[in-house]
């Protein structure tokens, strides 16, 4: 009797445990992988197997996680992103030239689909696919052939394209464009610019997706539907945002906000870092990082010198994440320590940290709120401006402009954020709000992923608004 009951329980659990899940991101920067990794690790602990495709080779091994990194895609992205974004931003140029921004999606698609490792995937079977909401169109061609339900993690939280195609409202008057520097409180003029940006991007996107569709049909056969038609069938969207750190907004029932899915309490720092911080005594230290996408090692010499001069003036120790060679830094003062890699969240959670100097990447902004640290931001490209604008209205940031930046300005901004308690208090206030949720972002994401698995899709949650926009057929 007991055995039969155990067997029944096993069978019932067996229906949700042990799914084969396909994850994929075509994002051109490595940070797109982070929310996927976190969700993958959580799902693996619950007995699922994950296959994860991206253009960035794995740098650690996770049991149960099989990473696929097609060499042609890896090469394409490496070549594409060998950029000096800081230099162009300082010169007031567009960090990414319009044609480069346009060609990325279909060229990377062509590189990926032409690779032997991608072709092998066709022989696999999966129960569910989880795609990046940024550039999902190419992978949609692959998963269409599996005839399985799919979800998104909308990694670029302020990007509204994939949300709109699923029927979510994205009013131009209150939803700042991800490439803008606006907040949700725009003047009439700003709303007009915001609307023009949005319409312009939609037109360009339509062209990009038509080219991507052509690539898909060349590689996978003529019956692959238009990506916009596949897109509207998304079962569920894990949105990389939260009313507290992005903006309160209307989302359909098949969207859950999972900002900070990767955030963790700080662990003790390695001994060399702890010693360096302790040597500064009670005055504390400053943490500087421009993230991984910006390639700070390629920065112009004028900016490098400006940073070195500013840090020399500061009565604080400075931890600086810098990937370049230390030999380029002969003029560094002893209060500054360089490192190629630093455990960012353990640093942000350190009680002696006074301020975080950042590019304003979305994940960094979430982490800083999670750990209650005020910031000085120097936005570079993509969503950095819009992320920084939000942090500024929330009162825990000073936003600087690389185009006009001076040593004096940077020095003053850092000192102000440290010495005016309003910045620290505002960061703590946001932190409290962000932590007050009925489940963690990871628990939320796992719940909805298994929900989609249990019901083999979540078509009953889809909004009819998704059918209002017709894909332009070619
Ligand atoms: C997970 O993958 C391994 C190795 O490919 C396989 O042996 C195992 O059966 C898979 N488990 C599930 C739950 O699909
Ligand atoms: C690398 O990029 C350059 C400039 O964008 C391009 O001309 C070249 O063909 C690319 N090389 C490869 C191997 O993709
Ligand atoms: C949505 O996807 C499911 C699973 O692949 C499929 O059965 C269904 O026909 C699709 N619906 C539409 C409208 O494409
Ligand atoms: C919106 O911006 C205007 C102009 O800057 C300001 O007067 C107003 O107080 C702001 N409203 C809110 C709700 O923040």
UniProtKB/TrEMBL annotation:
Principal location: membrane
Membrane topology: Single-pass membrane protein
Highest taxon in the source lineage: Eukaryota
UniProt key word Transcription regulation: no
Signal peptide: 1-18
Gene3D superfamilies documented for this protein: Glycogen Phosphorylase B
Gene Ontology molecular functions: glucuronosyltransferase activity
Location(s) in or outside the cell: Membrane
Pfam families linked: UDPGT
Keywords: Glycosyltransferase, Signal, Transferase
Family: Belongs to the UDP-glycosyltransferase family.
Organism: Drosophila busckii (Fruit fly)
Name of the protein: UDP-glucuronosyltransferase
SUPFAM superfamilies: UDP-Glycosyltransferase/glycogen phosphorylase
Reactions accelerated catalytically: glucuronate acceptor + UDP-alpha-D-glucuronate = acceptor beta-D-glucuronoside + UDP + H(+)
One Gene Ontology term, aspect cellular component: membrane
Enzyme Commission number(s): 2.4.1.17
């Amino acid at each position: 009797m007991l055995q039969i009951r155990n067997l029944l329980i096993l069978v019932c659990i067996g229906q949700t445990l042990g799914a084969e899940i396909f994850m994929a991101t075509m994002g051109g920067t490595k940070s797109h992988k982070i929310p996927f990794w976190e969700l993958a690790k959580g799902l693996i602990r619950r007995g699922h197997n994950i296959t994860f495709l991206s253009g960035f080779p794995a740098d650690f091994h996770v049991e149960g996680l099989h990473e696929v990194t097609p060499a042609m895609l890896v090469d394409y992205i490496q070549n594409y992103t060998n950029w000096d974004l800081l230099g162009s931003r300082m010169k007031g140029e567009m960090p990414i030239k319009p044609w480069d921004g346009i060609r990325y999606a279909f060229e990377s698609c062509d590189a990926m689909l032409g690779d032997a490792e991608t072709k092998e995937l066709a022989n696999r079977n999966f129960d569910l696919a989880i795609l990046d909401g940024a550039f999902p169109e190419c992978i949609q061609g692959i998963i269409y052939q599996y005839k399985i339900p799919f979800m998104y993690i909308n990694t670029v939280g302020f990007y509204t394209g994939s949300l709109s195609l699923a029927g979510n409202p994205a009013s131009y008057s209150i939803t700042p464009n991800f490439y803008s520097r606006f907040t949700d409180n725009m003047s009439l003029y700003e709303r007009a610019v915001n609307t023009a940006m949005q319409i312009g991007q939609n037109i360009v996107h339509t062209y990009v997706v038509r080219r991507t569709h052509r690539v898909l049909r060349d590689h996978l056969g003529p019956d692959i539907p238009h990506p916009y038609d596949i897109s509207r069938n998304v079962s569920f969207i894990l949105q990389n945002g939260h009313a507290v750190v992005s903006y309160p907004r209307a989302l359909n029932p098949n969207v859950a906000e999972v900002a900070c899915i990767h955030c963790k309490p700080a662990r003790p720092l390695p001994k060399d870092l702890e010693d360096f911080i302790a040597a500064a005594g009670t005055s504390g230290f400053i943490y500087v990082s421009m993230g991984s996408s910006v390639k700070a090692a390629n920065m112009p010499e004028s900016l490098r010198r400006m940073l070195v001069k500013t840090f020399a003036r500061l009565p604080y120790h400075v931890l600086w994440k810098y990937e370049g060679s230390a030999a380029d830094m002969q003029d560094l003062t002893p209060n500054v320590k360089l490192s190629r890699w630093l455990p960012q969240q353990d640093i942000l959670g350190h009680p002696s940290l006074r301020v975080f100097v950042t590019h304003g990447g979305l994940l960094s902004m979430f982490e800083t709120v999670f750990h209650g640290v005020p910031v000085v931001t120097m936005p570079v490209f993509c969503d950095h401006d819009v992320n920084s604008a939000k942090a500024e209205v929330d009162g825990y940031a000073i936003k600087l402009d690389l185009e006009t930046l001076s040593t004096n300005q940077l020095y003053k901004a850092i000192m102000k954020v440290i010495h005016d308690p309003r910045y620290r208090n505002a960061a703590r206030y946001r932190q409290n709000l962000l932590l007050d949720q009925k489940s963690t972002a990871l628990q939320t994401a796992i719940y909805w992923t298994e929900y989609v698995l249990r019901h083999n899709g979540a078509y009953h949650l889809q909004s009819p608004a998704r059918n209002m926009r017709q894909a332009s057929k070619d």
